[in-house]
Amino acid sequence: MTEMRRPLIAGNWKMHLTLAESAALARTVRTDLKETAVAEVVLAPPFTALSVVAQELAGSPVQLAAQDVFWELQGAYTGAISPRMLQDVGCRYVIIGHSERRQYFGETDATVNRKIKAVLTVGLQPMMCIGETLAQREAEETLAVITSQLTGGLADLLPEEINRLVIAYEPVWAIGTGRTATPEQAQEVHSFIRQLLAKQVRPDIAYGLRLLYGGSVTPDNIKVLAQAPDIDGALVGGASLKADSFLKIAALGN
Hints:
The chain is α/β, with parallel strands linked by helices and 254 residues long. The protein has one domain (8-250): Aldolase class I (TIM Barrel, Alpha-Beta Barrel), CATH 3.20.20. It contains twelve helices and eight strands. It has helices at residues 19-32, 50-57, 83-89, 99-105, 109-121, 134-138, 142-153, 159-162, 183-200, 203-208, 222-226, 243-250, and strands at residues 8-12, 40-44, 63-66, 93-96, 125-130, 166-169, 210-214, 233-236. Strand 1, helix 1 and strand 2 (40-44) form a beta-alpha-beta unit.
């Protein structure tokens, strides 16, 4: 990463933790996070815990994120959560297009695009996830998949809107599997994303955008990943469920 882009470490708790467990973990992260922390730290609890975690994080530098969102601001959409609701509960970020949403819930590049636009209208910042499956990587389709997801997800967005995004590259084959892309593999894709954005949007926006890596990030591999010039932090899954491991990652392994 470069000093021009502040690193960001986001903990995606997925479908874990009760209200009490969520509050306790958020409290520990808030309390034990060093004042000298270089990285911006973000927690993404399940919808049910957003309110209690927001209370625990109040007045701290730790930011709140949601794990998903619907693309309408209100209406008869049973079970859905709107950008306005997320703004009201105290979110700053929203994860959009996570591979698990794509795999299990039918998320497409078109719905990712609609969600990004809706989130931007209320002033929240999207964390857009992209990444290839193992079959796609073995078929040497990684860069084609990344191009398609990036182009589809960002369709019709103005450069100024794209400038408000965070993009997370998460190779699907490395999520929750214990397998991690090598720093070289991750850097190759991150560099490609930045070059593609420079061509399709604007070089200055591409250079300033934060690109995160996601996929079995641990305290043991974060330091070498963060040293790659185009990796600006991480979207952390399992290791974010324990305060000690997450805080070590937030310290970028230092």
